[in-house]
Design brief:
single chain, mainly alpha
Amino acid sequence: MTIARSWRAPIVIALVVVLLDQTTKHWAVNALADGHIIDVIWTLQFNLAYNSGMAFSRGRGLGPVIAVVATIVIVWLLASLRSGGTKLSQFGMGCLIGGAVGNLLDRLFRGDAWLQGSVVDFIDFQWFPIFNVADIAVNVGAAALILNSILVSRADARAAVLGHADTPGSPGSMADTSGEPSDPGQASS
């Protein structure tokens, strides 16, 4: 797989996430700015909130530091796309990059000064911290990468076991070419 092809899917996914995230945040800022709350279903409601910290409103006021760290992470994720990977890992990387960029854009442009912005959150279950589409993408992307890691390591382990079992002369091999009895309980004369 060429480098250009390994970048294509994650970048398209990231762009879709950023577009969806910024569109929904724009809607939330315009529709909910007056304190209006929209009840959706069960405990889910749309309720506008601004987060100047990181996940779950921790680290309030650390927006500039968080923005710099997010930028470094985004660059690192983009650089790691060169290695290709599975479709699941490419999906996960696209979601992570898109979510990180979506929230970084808020920090860059939704404030009084450069890097002083707060992230727009509006999805509120009332029993869980308020979040947004970018947050969903980051969590889905991280879960996809964890699942991919588990699946790849299991496939590698299975391949190693099968590769060892098929090696001529190895115990349990179907391809024992040593001329010796394959049953260790048989004695040779």
